[in-house]
Design a protein that fits this description.
The structure is a single chain. The chain has helices at about 1-35, 40-65, 70, 80-100, 105-115, 125-175, 205-225, 235-255, 270-285, 285-290, 310-320, 335-350, 375-405; strands spanning about 115-120, 120, 185-190, 195-200, 305, 365. The protein has three domains: about 1-170, no CATH class; about 270-375, Cytochrome c-like domain (Cytochrome Bc1 Complex, Chain D, domain 2), CATH 1.10.760.10; about 380-405. Helices cover about 65% and strands about 5% of the residues. The strands form three sheets. The protein has a two-stranded antiparallel ribbon with strand order 1-2. Strands 3-4 form a two-stranded antiparallel ribbon. The chain is mainly alpha-helical and about 400 residues long. The chain has 13 helices and six strands.
C-alpha cells in the first residue's frame, strides 16, 4: 500500500517537471538570452529541479520500507485517504501542465498583457514557476507525513509485540499452563469414553495463596489465643462501647445545648437559675404560679411529685409534656439548654413555702434515690404540713400580742 502511494508521489514529481521543462523550452525559444541570465528565473528553476530530485530520492528510499508486509496491514485504513490526497494534487499539477503546453503565441500574448515585471520576469512566468515550487513543497510534505506515520506504526507494532510477550510470560507464571501443542507430555493413561485426563499443575497463585492462609492462621492463633496480645471480638466490642461513652460525655461537655433527659445535670450557676426563672415566668407561671406555688398545675415548692422529682424526670416532663393532663410539650418552643435551666430553677423552689401554696399532689420524693412514699403517706404528710403551718401561725400571733401589750 505504501509502495503504491510513493509511486504515485514519484509520478507526481515527474509530472511537475513536465510543465517546467515545457515552459522553459518555450521561453528559451524566444528569450533565451534574457531569461537564463535572470537571477530570479535561475533560482526558481534550480529550486524546482532540486525539490523534484529530493522527492524522487525520498520516494525511492521509502519504497523498500513500504514493501514490508509487517506494516502493510497497518496502512490498510489509510489507503483511501492517502490515494485521494495524491490524486487531488496530481489533478492540480496536470491542470497546470496543460496550461503550460499552450502555444508560444498565447504565452507571448499573456506576457504582453502583463507588462509589469517581477525581478525581470513577466508575471505569468514568475507566478507559474512559484506555483510549481509550492506544489512540490506540498508533495514533500506528503512524503514527510507518510514517513511519520510509518515510524509511528512501526513503534506501535513493536510495542504491541513486546507487551504481548510480557503478558504471555506473566500468564504462564500465574497459571503454569501447558500449550495445547504440548498437552501430550502431561496426558495420563486414563481414558473415559474418549475423554482423556491431563495432569495439569495447580496454578501458582492458588498454591501460594493457600500457603499464605496457613501462615496467617498460625499468626492469628498465637496472637489471639496463645499470647493474648490481641483482643477477641467480645472484649474489643466492650472497649469500643466504653470509648464511645467517654466520647459522648466529652461531646456533651463541649455542647451544652445537646443535653437530653438522660444526660441533663442540675445547674447551680446563678446565671442559669436566673435564665430558667425568666423562661418559667414567661411560659409556666400561668399554670404553676409566679413562685411555683401552683394554680391549675401542681405546687413545685413541696416534696411531692406526680411524675417524679429528679432532674431527669422534670426535664422529661417539660420536654414531652403530659397532654392527657393538660400540659403541652415544650420541645418545639424551648431549646434543650432552656429546658435544663427551667428544670434547675424548679428544683431551686423546693422548701421556699410561697404564700397560697397549693396542696401537695402525687408521691413524696426523697433526694438521693430513696423509694417514693405511697399516696396514703402523702395524705398524712399533708396533714402534718397543715398542722405545722397552724402552729407557726399561732406562735406568730402570740408573739405579736405580747409585743403590743408591752
Amino acid at each position: 500500500m505504501l509502495m503504491n502511494n510513493f509511486n504515485k508521489i514519484k509520478t507526481l514529481a515527474v509530472a511537475m517537471l513536465i510543465p517546467a521543462v515545457g515552459f522553459c523550452q518555450q521561453q528559451t525559444t524566444k528569450e533565451s538570452s534574457s531569461y537564463f541570465s535572470n537571477v530570479l528565473f535561475l533560482t526558481l528553476l534550480v529550486t524546482i529541479i532540486v525539490l523534484a530530485i529530493v522527492i524522487v530520492a525520498f520516494s525511492s528510499v521509502f519504497k523498500n520500507i513500504a514493501d514490508s508486509d509487517y506494516l502493510t496491514t497497518k496502512y490498510a485504513n489509510k489507503k483511501s485517504e492517502d490515494s485521494s490526497t495524491v490524486k487531488n494534487v496530481t489533478s492540480v499539477v496536470l491542470l497546470l501542465s496543460s496550461l503550460s503546453m499552450m502555444s508560444q503565441e498565447k504565452v507571448a500574448a499573456i506576457a504582453k498583457v502583463n507588462d509589469g515585471r517581477i525581478g525581470g520576469l513577466d508575471q505569468f512566468t514568475f507566478y507559474f514557476m512559484l506555483a510549481i515550487v509550492f506544489l512540490e513543497l506540498i508533495v514533500l510534505g506528503l512524503i514527510i507525513y507518510q514517513f511519520n506515520f510509518l515510524v509511528k506504526t512501526y513503534t506501535v507494532v513493536e510495542t504491541a509485540a513486546k507487551v504481548k510477550k510480557v503478558e504471555s510470560k506473566l500468564m504462564l507464571s500465574l497459571t503454569d499452563a501447558v500449550a495445547i501443542e504440548e498437552e501430550d507430555s502431561i496426558m495420563l493413561d486414563h481414558d473415559y469414553d474418549g475423554i482423556k485426563e491431563l495432569d495439569n499443575n495447580l496454578p501458582p497463585w492458588w498454591k501460594y495463596g493457600f500457603y499464605l492462609t496457613i501462615v496467617v492462621a498460625i499468626v492469628y492463633l498465637i496472637n489471639y489465643h496463645v499470647i493474648g496480645t490481641g483482643d477477641l471480638q467480645g472484649k474489643e466490642y466492650e472497649k469500643e462501647i466504653a470509648q464511645a461513652k467517654l466520647e459522648v460525655e466529652e461531646f456533651m461537655k463541649t455542647s451544652a445545648n445537646n443535653v437530653d433527659e438522660s444526660t441533663v445535670k442540675l445547674l447551680t450557676d446563678a446565671s442559669d437559675i436566673e435564665a430558667g426563672k425568666t423562661v418559667f415566668i414567661a411560659n409556666c407561671a400561668a399554670c404553676h404560679g409566679q413562685l411555683g406555688e401552683g394554680t391549675v398545675g401542681p405546687n413545685f415548692a413541696d416534696d411531692y411529685w406526680i411524675h417524679g422529682g429528679s432532674v431527669q424526670d422534670i426535664f422529661k416532663s417539660i420536654k414531652y409534656g403530659w397532654v392527657e393532663k393538660g400540659m403541652k410539650s415544650w420541645k418545639e418552643d424551648l431549646s434543650p439548654m432552656q429546658i435544663a435551666q427551667v428544670t434547675s430553677f424548679i428544683k431551686s423552689l423546693r422548701g421556699t413555702n410561697p404564700p397560697n401554696g397549693k396542696a401537695a399532689q402525687g408521691d413524696l420524693y426523697v433526694e438521693g434515690g430513696a423509694a417514693p412514699v405511697s399516696d396514703s403517706t402523702a395524705v398524712v404528710g399533708d396533714t402534718l404540713n397543715v398542722q405545722i403551718k397552724a402552729d407557726s401561725l399561732k406562735a406568730a400571733v402570740t408573739t405579736t400580742v405580747a409585743t403590743a401589750k408591752k
